[in-house]
Amino acid sequence: MYKVGILGATGAVGREMMKILAERQFPISELRLFASSRSAGKVVEWNGRPVMIQEPSEENFRGLDIVLGAAESDIARLYAPEVVRAGAVFVDNSSAYRMDDDVPLVIPEVNPEDVKLHHGIIASANCSTIITVTAVNALNAISPIRSMVASTYQAVSGAGAGGPVELAEEVEALRTGKPVQPKVFSHQIAYNLIPQIGGEQYEGYTSEEMKMQNEGRKIMHLPDLRVTCTCVRVPVVRSHSISVTLRFDKPVSVREARHAIAAAPGCRLVDDLGNHEYPMPLDTSDQDLVYVGRIRPDLTDDNGLTLWCCGDQIRKGAATNTIQVAELLIEK
Ligand code: 2RA
């Protein structure tokens, strides 16, 4: 049995982690929840037991085996050294350490062995990257992927618990003729699309868009992979969707790709256009599989394939993936 902490326990991902730890029967002898001073002292129920929220500190981390990071990257950076000094392994969902050379970046279905390379910190990847790479890695095994063009359709809950509240309030304001006042997003999201997630990072690409290339390269061990990505916030409550066009070293047929996806861990093939069956965010929410469909030839390149995938970004794209990494850690 293990002593486990959650840093950022009161946020959307932290709350989901509590639920998934219980659901997966993670072998826990003690759960400690850490959040800011605003929440410290409050008692929440976990698995039928009361757990008091504490402020994070090296002293409060002492005795834990694993701390799951569900906080933003500035908080992760602040407390990771204390977690490690206290003797626990920090399995972090934030972007703080993902690209550090001595920190493995892991999707358990893709690069489980990398967990062994850790020095106290293991990172879980970005939500859209996890969903996309879980889907395309199976095809990379048929023929190495050279490049990828991706467009994401990211749900409002990816921006935290305030995202769905803002969408609902805007829909209500518009219905009743009241003014819309965006706070979480930079523009009205109701009945709109916002083609910016993150700040500008490189040549007009946002930080969220560059994660797809940089994290994808590290996880799939494809250092020369080239990715062009456009990330778009859409008025969907939960589950991110991604349109992907892949170019391989050699041609991969639709039939081969369908077989590979159907057999791939963490994926479900949902691909029957004639019967209107394809992945949709309403169907992928509150579960852990990445649904993949619309697999078809890329009409611009003989070595290309196009597909569509959806997954629950709070579960597989964040909380579940982080907990799966912790499970690997105790297994290995
Ligand atoms: C989102 N949380 O905004 C993600 C960003 N990685 O959807």
Features:
single chain; 332 residues; alpha/beta; Rossmann fold; Dihydrodipicolinate Reductase, domain 2; 2 domains; eight-stranded mixed β-sheet; six-stranded mixed β-sheet; 9 helices; globular; binds 3-amino-D-alanine
Brief rundown of the structure:
The protein has 332 residues and is an alpha/beta fold. It has nine helices and 16 strands.
What is the 3D shape?
Answer: globular
CATH topology of the largest domain: Dihydrodipicolinate Reductase, domain 2
Portion of residues in beta strands equals 25-35%
Largest sheet: 8 strands, mixed
Order of helices and strands: EHEEEHEHEEEHEHEEHEEHEHEEH
| Helix proportion | 25-40%
- The total number of structural domains is 2
At CATH's second level, what is the architecture of the largest domain? 2-Layer Sandwich
- Using only C-alpha atoms, the radius of gyration works out to 20 Å
Strand order of the largest sheet: 3-4-2-1-5-6-8-7
Structural class: alpha/beta
Count of separate DSSP helical elements:
9
Question: What's the helix and strand layout?
Answer:
Blueprint: E1 2-7, H1 12-23, E2 28-34, E3 43-46, E4 49-54, H2 58-61, E5 66-69, H3 73-85, E6 89-92, E7 105-106, E8 121-124, H4 127-140, E9 145-154, H5 162-175, E10 200-202, E11 205-206, H6 207-220, E12 226-233, E13 240-248, H7 254-263, E14 267-269, H8 281-284, E15 290-297, E16 304-311, H9 315-331
Parallel strand pairs: 1-2, 1-5, 2-4, 5-6, 6-8, 7-8, 9-12, 14-15
Antiparallel strand pairs: 3-4, 9-13, 10-11, 13-16, 15-16
Helix pairs in contact: 1-9, 4-6, 4-7, 4-9
